[in-house]
Amino acid sequence: MPNDNVIKMEHGAGGEPMQALIRDLILNNITGRSAGLVGLDDLDDGATINISSIIENNNNNGNSNDNSNCNNPGEIVVTTDSHVIKPAFFPDSNIGRLAVSGTVNDLAVMGAEPLALTCAMIVPEGFELSSFEKIVRSMSEAAEEVDVPIITGDTKTVERNGLDSIIINTTGIGIANEVIRDCGLCTGDKIILTGTIGDHGISLLAHREGFELTTDLVSDVAPLWNMLKDVVQIRTIEGKPAISAMKDPTRGGLAGTLNEMAQKSGTGILIEQNDLPIKKSVASACEMLGIDPLEVANEGKAVICVKAEHAEEVLAILREHEYGKDAAIIGEATEENLGKVLMRTPIGSMRYVDPPTGDLIPRIC
């Protein structure tokens, strides 16, 4: 009989079981969770530390540095992630590039410029030194791409039978003048997807299981800050950010991300199936395997919610970049079906896009 009193694979898959684990067992047992605008309770891509409060506390404690010119110094943004992908090498990439990209992207979708990364690696006995070196070089290359240094780290080894592959944890520190929240979606906002969905998850699954599908199935792993840094600077006529919310659709895929944004913001979301960018090879593989591409993980895409009058401007900026050439407006936030995501199919019918409930493809990131 199934044991409901133990951790299962679906508890780390990004869907409802993981959200329940975090809500019921983690948040209920950790106190003192906020140091800035965004804290652990918010379950955003990261959390923040208010710089103004630090300056004020220093002044109150007798540190007399003149901070009179510090006009809105912003918020420090911190995020951390552990990467357990199997295998460590997959089409067109490896766990090293994944670790750096994932952490950079968690900062970027909160509107934060990456300042520095840390890295901790746990390596099993018997892991090939040549493979280890390739992973480290990939980390360096990804970090250099967005000009962020890896400033400190830690390495541990465990017995051969204690771990089946390398595990990497990366923590990112960034700074944002105005933090972008994943709960900021407003009625009327347009929803932009920066590229094709399902590339990472399907390419990894095909590689891992030995499926002979097609040669263009490769991971989309990429650090997105260079593409997003101009987008987060766009302002409305009133001088407010044009971007209402952002999130990268990793575990749980687009379905998980949109449902989380709808639930947190209290709006409805309507997307158009005809407008979803998806490669034919990915769509064919998903159909053959019985997988919903909306639930497949991505590692080089972002969901951007933007004021309608700025949607085309944002789209044009994204399409100028290599990682955004397939960007598309896929839907909008509505006043109907609050907290839910609906999709209009090619024949005009509607269906709910539910959050994932299981572990579609384990060890995906």
UniProtKB/TrEMBL annotation:
Residues 73-176 form the PurM-like N-terminal domain. Pfam families: AIRS (PF00586), AIRS_C (PF02769). Residues 188-341 form the PurM-like C-terminal domain. NCBIfam families: hypE (TIGR02124). Belongs to the HypE family. PANTHER family: CARBAMOYL DEHYDRATASE HYPE, HYDROGENASE ISOENZYMES FORMATION PROTEIN HYPE. This is Hydrogenase expression/formation protein HypE. It comes from Methanococcoides cohabitans. The gene is hypE.
